[in-house]
Structure prediction request, 472 residues.
Amino acid sequence: MSRTRIVATIGPASCTPQILKNMAAAGMGIARLNGSHGSLDWHQKTIALLRETLPEIPILLDIPGRKIRTGQLSNEPLFKAGDIIILTTDPNYRGEQKVVINNSQLHKDLNAGDIIFADDGTLKFTVTAIEATDISCRAETSGQLKSRKGINVPYVQLRGKPVTDRDGEMIKFAKENGVDFVGISFVESASHVEEIRAIVGWSWPRIVSKIENRGGLQNMEEVIRATDAIMIDRGDLAVETSLEHVAIFQKRILRCARMHAKPVIVATEMLHTMINNPQPTKAEVTDITNAVLDGASATMLSGETAVGAYPSIAISTMRTISAAAESLVQETMQSDLASSSSVPQAMSGAINLLCRNLPITKIIAITVSGFAARTISAETPSQPILAVSNDKMAARSFNLLAGVKGVYVDIPFSKHTTEHIVECLTELWRRHEINHDDFLLVTAVAYPRSGNRMNLIQTHAVADLIETLNWK
Prediction:
């Protein structure tokens, strides 16, 4: 099992049962839906298709948030450098005379001379005039402005609340349809995360906060503490900050997240050339390798699997590259988690040491919330981790963690005995998740008290368990 998870975006090129099965076989660990594209009806049908076809695969729904985009255009204008393009917040245009954008207040926030970027920074415009709802722009590059493309105004303070009404609707939709994770755009503070969590209701879906602008970078530690997972959206990050610093910012975010044992998804253009070609570039191979070496829990494919010609090949290519990088991680990577005298930190260090000095083949974390699995995963052991929970959605969500497979069991977890530990191991044997030759390290909570999570470690030879417990 590859430690580094692959998040694959589902789109027109990949939303059939057979292609989804091929993608899972190739190594897809999380299915992503981009809420900026497609109707809610399409997303609902695709979620149902995923649940029917791949019930164990967790689903991430990226919600648009404050992301500015062009509208659905019947005419996608071509232009040359020096041409004037009119953007408008008036929704009654479709690209023939003016290009509509989805932020109804943007014309109030801009002034002549401001810079606008589009399509992940590949297009650049200078505002020449503002007239009512129209924003006249001079094109600084030649190109084509297409439907549903991102718009960035990196040096302008935008008005409006961080959590939009549309966010609330999308989160409600995610909850009603059993989505495992929601991705939140342009997160800049812990309070932003907590507003989202208040809507979620402190249960499911889990929150993936996207760090992609200056505010997110300035407050990244508080954001990382408050959220469940992080996504580094390098497309917006490059435009909102500076292209030459993106790799440096990525390393800083990964290091900070690992200090807090929070999983990180690295996204944007990781295998961009594979949208149209069956082979990656050397630069793309190096990019994925460095993300894995720096501690990414997951790497993400967007257009490669949503609209690309080779979705399964792109996934298998990413998996092969990640596996090669992981072999070096096991040789050289040392944990840089902050030293702590807490029970969980001490236990995770002890587990890491045992795994390096004993012939452990699998780590079993019996956990309701996933705290133990997350903490052990952050230590990057070479052994696969089976995270066992009696919460179905929690078990599915564990598949985001590096090297972790979530396993759901319908077993009550006792607060007064440890009998459920044996029951969980028995169930893993029945499902062939463990076998006769395995030597297990098991961690769980025995007789829980506050701050005493993950306070039990056991080692078992499965062959001995078979004989002692009379497993058949």
